[in-house]
Every structure is written in C-alpha cells, then in structure tokens.
Input
Amino acid sequence: MNYNFEIEKTINEIKNRGAKRVLLQFPEGLKPFSLQVVEQLKEKLPNIEFLISTEPSWGACDIAEDEATTLKVDLIIHYGHTPYTWYYPKFPTVFIEVRSNLYISDQQVANLKSLLEEKYKARRVSITSTIQHVHLIKQLATKLQEFDVVVGKPSSPFMYDGQILGCDYKAALNVEADVYLNISGGLFHALGVGLATGKPVIKVDPYTERNEDLTSEVYKILKVRYGKILKALDAKTWVIIQGVKTGQNRPLMVKYFEKKLKERGYKVFVVTNRSLSKDTLRNVDNDEIDTFVVTSCPRLPIDDLYDYEKPVLTPGEAKMIIAGNLDKYIFPW
Ligand code: SF4
Output
C-alpha cells in the first residue's frame, strides 16, 4: 500500500473510546484497500466488529452518519480527508488523513523548473496540494529556491497550509502568483485551482511522476462553461438542486438563489437529492425546465454533468448571472 492508514492511531482511538462496533468509510480511490485495513485492525482487535461502507463518498462533507445510526455502530472511522470546512459530524467520528508515501523525484523537479522558467518566466510560484500529499509542499518548496514560493493559508483550522478541497481553494486564492502548482493525482483539483484563480496551473503528479500544464485545459473548460452561462441567460424556469447529505445541505444558499432568481423574473423550483447523476436529472427534467443550479457539490456540474443537454450550473456561475456580470468567472461558490 502506498498509503499510511495509521493503523496504530486507529486502534488507540477505538480502544480509548470503548467502541465495539465500528463503521469504516473510505473515499472511492481508497475503497480497494478496505479489506486489507480491516485485516490489519482485526489482528490487534479480534473482538471488535468492523463494517465497511461501500456507499459513494467523495469528501468529508459526506460522513456516513445516517448509515452509522441505522447500523447501530459506536464509531465511524472516516479515511482520506480532514474535517470539512463547513460541517462537522455529530456522530462520533475519527478522521484518518491517509497520507501517500510517494515523493517527487529530482528529475521531476528539474523538469518542473524548466517549465516554470522557459514557458512562464515565473518569479512567484504558489504550491497547493490535496491532503494525501500535503507534506510534500515543504519538500518541493525547498527544491524551488530560485523562485519566490508562496503557500497560502487554508480556510479552516482543520486544514494545512496549502491544502485545497474540490470546493475550497482558499489556500490558492489567498496568495498572488505567476503560476499555481498543485500536487495531486487525477485532474479535478488542479483544474479547480485554475478555474478559481484564472492563472496558469501545473499539476505535479507524484503517481505518474509527470508535470502536466493544465492551463489550456482550463481555458477549454471555461469556454464550455461560458457557453452554458450564456444559454442560461435565456432561461425562464430554473431548478435549484438542494443536497440532502448533511454536509452538502446548504439551505441558506438555496433560499438566496430562490429569492434572487425570482427577483430577476425567473420561475424557480427546488428539488432535493442525495447522489446526483444524469439519470436523476433526466427523471425530473421536462420541456418547461431550462436550467439547473447545483448547491450540493460544485464538482458535479463541471465533472459528472458537464455534457448534460441543458445548462447545469455551479453556485458561482448562477451568481454571475444574478449579478449581471460575466467578466470574472467565479468558482466554486
Ligand atoms: S468538492 Fe464536493 S465532495 Fe468534495 S468536499 Fe466539496 S462538496 Fe464534498
């Protein structure tokens, strides 16, 4: 396993809390390791009952509190995230960060320097990361001494300097830089940094050992997003999607959009949803509906629902329409 599941810490937490029945929750990318984790825990805690949730989980916005209550467990162990910026579970929960053991090789750093110098003539460089690689921020900063490296403060005390989430880019937005580096695997977090800052963004990927300049990819996404925003300007009927996962339920935001969209003369409906997909949109869709705005998770309109046949907007995009100002792209909120 290339990840540290902090087995000893987990065992101590379970013992100290006197838990007998424990629900383990893993995000999608870590689920394949769940059986191995249980085996390791069982070796030291043979009398504890472990259950593994296979429900989808993408963030700490989505702690399996309902499941834990139904299953009558004593404790949730949530792997792969720090607590969410805007919600903390009421159910007893232990967060295990699951840091990656991968590192950024000297060769990859050398390639990165060339890219920063030759393509961008960069002087000031921001470094951000997902939680799995956040310890690499300092290591990379010390190897980029030719540049003025800045690492921004995050939005909550649960997070580390430079740490971002798919819906929280404060650590990038809190600093000014010529180029923004994001240490992560996958695409979404780095693209999010580009969408939120509007600046060149390079993904420093410890899995592939490659540096990917995503600046033109962000530009392509922006063109598509503006197309959807322009189409939504002609809408008559909007549907606001309210999330019902506790950490994704944002009633004040829903009320705000309902009020502001009605003031602008739109007809507005609110629908609720737990796990949004194209199929769930199609089930409610009809000829009257012109545009959707998703208040649960701003990743969904950009990632999973980007090719839905009608505009499916993020809260930031809906705000641009309400403000009547399309000059500055707002992501995510
Ligand atoms: S991006 Fe979506 S899934 Fe990830 S933390 Fe934010 S709301 Fe949750």
Q: What stands out?
A: The mean pLDDT is 97. The first helix runs from residue 7 to 17. Residues 58-59, 61, 84, 165-167, 248, 297, 299 surround iron/sulfur cluster (CB under 6 Å).
